[in-house]
Amino acid sequence: MTTASKITLVRVAFIPVYMTLMYISGGVPGIWLWLALAVFILAGVTDYVDGTVARKYNQVTDFGKFLDPLADKLMVIGAMTIFCQWGLFPAWALMIVLTREFAVTGLRLVAVGKGTVIAAGWSGKVKTASTMISLCVWMAFPTSQLIGWIAIGVIIVTTVYSGIEYFIQNRKCLWQ
Question: Which single residue of 13, 95, 159, 161 has CA 20 to 30 Å from 105?
Answer without folding.
Answer: 13
